[in-house]
Amino acid sequence: MRHLTPLLWTALAALATLAPAWGDDPLPQDLIAKAGRGDARAGLALAYRYRDGAGVKRDYAEALRWAHPAADRGYADAQDFVGWMYFEGLGVQRSPEIAAGYFKAAAGQSTAAAWNLGQCYFAGLGVDQDVPKALAAWTRAAARGHGRSASTAAMVYLAGDGVPADAKEARRLAERAAELNDPSGHVVLGEIHFRAGETEQARKCWTRVARTKSVGPIGPPTQPSDQLAAQQGADLLKLTAYRDRKPEPGRFALVTVPHVHQGWNNCGATSCAMLARAQGKPVGGWDVKRLCPSPPGTGTDWGDLLKASEKLALRWKLVTFTPDADGFVKAAAFARGELDAGRPLVVDFKYTGAEYPGGEAGHTLALVGYVAGEDLYVLCNPALATPGLQLMSAKDLQRYWRSDHYGAVAKNVLARPAIVLGR
């Protein structure tokens, strides 16, 4: 099952070392000369250029040729660069093990490498999965000014995924992320305020992040990754009027589902962990993943997720609807009935386009509410910042709620699948 998502590209982009904004200017001759004389900074600058096709034809092998000497001499930023190339398999055979080795070597000096190393530990890619080690790497990076590390660690402490929940540490790290102006940090800190009954402070956090980008009344699921936090802030501002409101069957429902951060490509198991938590089972995304045979970093067959629910002493079942317009009408009516009864659903999305590897991508997330009068649905998305809530129009839900790779049972036939609570 291919499950790299438009939203997950946020994580992919964050894993990469950030390159200077070179544009399409041709390569300066003095830069080539400096790199040729062994200047590590110049060599890394050339590596960025070749990796990104900035002023030259994109050439991953050439990028590595310039980055490797600097990395071998201990230049931390170059080590992080080479590690990322191995992690992604760009110009070399993909090897998370080699990547993690480079990240370890550079983490003491490079905040990007510390962030990347934390990602490896959290997802169990290239190293044994170890959430405390991931948090240690992210906390060190946060102390040195890496906002994304601070906000991600705050989410993990807030959820208590792989470590005991620690509200005090979560708030401290969220405040650090907001101090560093990390967009996700503003979202998470706003949620911490909201849960504490500090609604005005929450609104201030979400207003601040919503103003960082031009946002619409509802954001499309395929919006650019740097737009996501701003749109989420706008969605949360709108949702403040609904989150404490009593449900009105047929008109409005919003089921509380504890949010869990998915980490690297673990949306299926994490969405099911959120479903389990909504039923009172305190499990995390990796707890569910370990109950399935697929390795970390790969998609999870929905048949295995259903078997995992049995091991957790929960009853889930798979329902599907046809991918046409009539099927959506039936699927939407079913979903609203479930939500009216206080039962969230796990759904699978499919995206198509040249921007995705192989021309398509998928994402699993939870459907937790609807507002009938505005033709809106509410999702709890493990790829977004806590609380993970986002709004989606009925039109977009109809377009994207479909999949032919949710599991072996799909047999490559397109449907609208959902994992629902057994009666």
From TrEMBL:
Keywords: Signal
Coiled-coil residue windows: none
Origin superkingdom: Bacteria
Key word Magnesium present: no
One Pfam family recorded for the sequence: Sel1
Sequence ranges assigned to domain Peptidase C39-like in this UniProt record: 257-378
Leader peptide range in chain numbering: 1-23
Keyword Signal attributed: yes
UniProt protein name: Sel1 repeat family protein
Organism: Limnoglobus roseus
